């Protein structure tokens, strides 16, 4: 018995230190969630301070937070959030990871400008990304989406005349740039270079551009980047509120009115709603010297949202309707080869045109409806489940000049219906590891409506897709690591007739995408993001089967049904510095694309009964895109700020000695801003800024096949000024801008109608915004 006791004592002496040492490794995790004590809803953005460790963090979009590398013992946690009393609590951490729920009480004072709103998904990516918040969007209200995004280095736009523009990210556009409208991947006839996004920018409270290859999370079309258009979360309490925006512009005499109204529903706590609408009308636009005939626009959009939210369950419904009629510059449609050559040689219309609000042929009429239904469920300890269904209907009609009374009949009449189902499971694991699992399924049916008396440029088609992915993210104090992998299968079944000849067939595509990235906070003032993305994109129906006149672009386009899927490898690095007065962000990237598909001008012109049109062929090659984006600002004395933005892009055809067409020119923007806030006055947020925008000549293009030389370098001076006026509990925002202030006559290389006309002249806009 004595021997047995001695054995126990010896065991304790030998092993207890090892047990204590194991516990003192400080590898424990404190996990928690911050909730509103009244509504039981998560308080996103709450600041959490761990007193003993002197470290702080913020709650994510669902109220969750965590601290890693914690030892056993007692800890004091201090939580703050605007409109709530500071919460200070002491917790005891044992030899296992701890999870706690913290409730915050509303302050006794009434803060009229504070509303509790629902959570918004937190963007997590190691790829370069830039977000335009409400203040930046206020400066560009009334502009189309592509124009708004040009404020971001590396983002330009491709135009078809003065009325149609679509975003370009690092030289990628159309089906290589995925757009997400309120969580739903935008589906329409986006394959067309002259098919602008059917999105009303007034619905957005922020717009984010991800410049990396994000195929793992978003699918094959994200080979060039992602654009996220996000409205603000619906209010949970706070009563009725809204806004009215009025915009007037001198060029085209464009008038825009947009209004929004939102509130919670008092009889049923947790229920809230929002309605929004926009009307826009404009006439013929003007260059520095002449009008561009038939460039008017009419637009009417509206949307409605409904949300019901309890402690762990969120139900969201959303509907939007986008309706636009826009004219296509008539000078791009000419009657014969001789007339076309004369128009290109002249470089501008033979008449100065005139102003009118009338829209004649050629023109486009597009209606896009979107429905979203979403269920969000917060499970245990930071685990979340999202199920989302989306339906979209896109009806596109394009009208052209035709003999007799046929001009009233659309020459192209397309209707596309799409269904999507997205399921994601987000889980916070031990040791600071976060896992995201997801599956996506899509069904797209596109048909040509009979009765156009013309052969459609693309056949009818059905497209089905399925994808599954997993993303793992490790979050540490000094760095984040992220890795993801995805598998996609897509099928395209096309069927059409040219005369009595059938064409089309079924194409099956499948591939694997991957990503690997790091965010390294290696210094208090410096951080580095590096992301390597493997992506792919199957050819679209127009690239495979186009053969005929594309009315909107006034060109003949010819596809190739033997095209292969594109394979992309993009490495992008972002170095950021921020300290006191100086901020710098530098992006550098290399993007290799195998089987890159592009629309190549042949130099050939085809004449028919409809007119004479240049011919473009879809071709394929291996390509390398390399470039850099720079954003810098320095705070000068007396309220002045100097800003610098620039983008450089080099694109190379690796299989031929020639150059790739339609690659954005390099550009540089210099800005000087004066800003001042008068706290004792009704006026606040006053600013005035002057910008010098320089776009350099594109020297890398194929002179032997393009129809005209690339335009020369041009410089534009832009002026912006604005302020806010406090009226009791309401605010009125006033903003004035003057683009191309000096009325410079210029041409943009990325405008497909640069052969026939110049770009826009001076445009002065007044924006009034009333918020209540």
TrEMBL record:
Residues 124-226 form the TonB-dependent receptor plug domain. Keywords: Cell outer membrane, Membrane, Receptor, Signal, TonB box, Transmembrane, Transmembrane beta strand, Transport. Transmembrane segments: none annotated. It holds the Pfam family Plug. Coiled coil: none annotated. It is a multi-pass membrane protein. PROSITE patterns: TONB_DEPENDENT_REC_3 (PS52016). Residues 280-741 form the TonB-dependent receptor-like beta-barrel domain. This is TonB-dependent receptor. It comes from Albibacterium profundi.
